[in-house]
Amino acid sequence: MGFPSDDIVTIKLGQHGYPTLISVNCPDKLGLGADIARIILEFGLIIVRADLSTDGKWCFCLFWVHPAEGISKNIRWAALKKLLVRACPPTRPHLLLPQFQIPKPTQSYLLRTLSMDNVGLLNEITQVLWELEFRVHKMIASVTPDGKAVTMFCLTDSRESLHEKRRQDDLCIRLKLILGEQTSDCVVTPAGTEWGELDCTTFLSAASTSLMDICSHDAQGVGKLRIDVDNSLSPGHTLLQICCKGRRGLMYDCMRTLKDFQIQIAYGRSATNGKGDGEIDLFILHGDGKKLIDPVKLENLCSRLEDEILQPVRIAIMDRGPDIELIVAASIGVCGQGRPRALHDITCVLKALGICIFKADAGFYLIEDHRWEVYRFLFMEKHDVDLSSRQTQAQIAEKLRRKLLG
Asked: Domain ACT, which positions (predicted)?
């Protein structure tokens, strides 16, 4: 530890059913574990085991992963490695002048498409955006009376090259393959002020706030949970132990919460046994290098962890007059980034069920001082299935939970 290797990130593909091993060896920074776990989740992978260690300056992380249920085994490993390397701090930060360490403002763009509507169109557009490394921050979609689908995405480019005509042409060419060359339109422009800042949140109406209460009430936990904190085992660290049902995104939800609380991990281990039970042991410090001894802060941390582990995603389906509305909500951290693959996975389930979307929107909202990423969909009537049936709605909600949480 402490010496840069030739490969900051290495990936050893698993054979004969064994998980793939991802190793990260780079300078440490607060929240690095959350950033890595987020990227791994972005590619539809489940972390079945992890080892993390750092001396405060350099860290070494090992992740054993495999594709989640329903995810193609043809993982784009080269793209995954590139993003992981990008998330790591530079190996020689002392060579960077201070003015170059200030992050540049992120340019947001508005993508508008027009085409004939069909089942699964929104999912196919989202898949293209993900493959080309675009990040969707806000979205509005609707279907006109003459059957045309209009979509607008406020997005940013991970490659930071969407201002170039070549990159715009590449995006539109890929999209027109699914939209239809003759009857579609694709336009990319800088996002106007009406879309707001990317890190800015708007307020939901009182009616929508009530819907969030319904989401919380209807949300189902993902099994039993035990969180223990011990300050007696180590003179310099606090031991945090989490025992719960293993699932997709569990490591990300835990790491993101710790990052929000400015907590650094000195050493950690995570494993999922054959019964699917997950255990996470972390020796942690506050960002100032001290143990966590304040009982109020510890209670707040454990309460937030409980919410993020048991209810990382909240789902509600209800009647909206003659229409059926689906709401999917997930909390977002201080970093302001939404849950990875959420829009893709939601629309993938709706596509598989043959449900047509009449109207949809997505964005970040502020409710009682907490940030949420909220997706809302209005369904078209489905002649072969009664979408107003409580049993049908419960089945849709369960399929969404399985897809989002694995």
From this structure: 110-195
